[in-house]
Write a structure and sequence with these properties.
This protein is an alpha/beta fold. The protein contains eight helices and twelve strands. A five-stranded parallel β-sheet has the order 2-1-3-4-5, sandwiched between helices. A four-stranded antiparallel β-sheet has the order 6-7-8-9, with helices on one face. The structure holds calcium ion. The site of calcium ion has 5 residues, from loops. Calcium ion (CA) binds next to loops.
Length: about 230
């Protein structure tokens, strides 16, 4: 396996040269290979060309807004995305997650914090690779943890790391209701310190991909508790 030797490639999409240069410095120091795009269209182009392992995306870009870039990336790829946001309200942060970002960091940030966040997101998406855990099956849902593939009612669905992790956590215990906090811990690990409401944003996106309007709903909101996968073991 030559994979261990290949550096992890990070694409930074950020229009402020100073911020981009600082992040590049810290990421390179952390052993990552770094490319920088200074606007949204260059970001999209480089994402397609370079196929980075993770994208750090500024939410406020000229011309094409960062959130629109996030949505466009998500429509074609499940690459992990960490959003840099200058917005401070909970709603604003959640909006990025609703558009498919895996995590966010609020400006002004310390570069160390960004490095810690991207490592956590990478661990999350790789942990599933590392611990071989086989295949989770319920009647309608198959989650292949080794191949990081999911299918719903026999149809493959492309899921970014956060949504995949949530579906896997739910599919481990079909029928069981999880609180948001439990789901966060199971999906993202005990050290995750984001908002519990993050789960709501990811669940909303997950639902759009896995629910069939003609079938029984699979991912239920349990009032006063959280969420459950309304399905039987296979
Ligand atoms: Ca900016």
């Amino acid at each position: 396996m030559s994979r261990a030797a290949a550096p992890i490639r990070i694409l930074i999409v950020e229009d402020e040269p100073k911020t981009a240069a600082t992040l590049r410095l810290y990421f390179e120091h952390g052993g990552f290979e770094v490319n920088v795009a200074a606007d949204g269209s260059a970001g999209l182009r480089l994402a397609r060309e370079l196929r980075p392992d993770l994208i750090v995306l500024d939410g406020m870009l000229p011309e094409i807004d960062g959130l629109a870039v996030c949505r466009a990336l998500r429509s074609e790829s499940d690459v992990p995305i960490v959003l840099l946001t200058a917005r401070t309200t909970e709603e604003d942060k959640l909006r990025g997650l609703q558009l498919g970002a895996d995590d966010y960091v609020t400006k002004p940030f310390s570069p160390r914090e960004v490095v810690a966040r991207i490592r956590a997101v990478l661990r999350r998406s790789r942990r599933e690779d590392a611990d071989a855990k086989g295949v989770l099956r319920t009647r309608h849902v198959v989650v292949d943890l080794d191949r990081r593939e999911a299918s719903i009612r026999g149809r493959a669905v492309l899921l970014p790391p956060a949504e995949f992790a949530i579906l896997a956590a739910l599919a481990r215990s079909p029928g069981r209701a999880f609180t948001r906090e439990e789901l966060v811990k199971r999906a993202f690990g005990p050290s995750y310190d984001g908002l519990d409401r993050t789960v709501d944003a990811h669940v909303m996106r997950l639902r759009r991909k896995i629910e069939d309007p003609r079938g029984e709903p699979l991912l239920l909101t349990v009032f006063g508790i959280g969420y459950k996968l309304a399905d039987e073991p296979a």
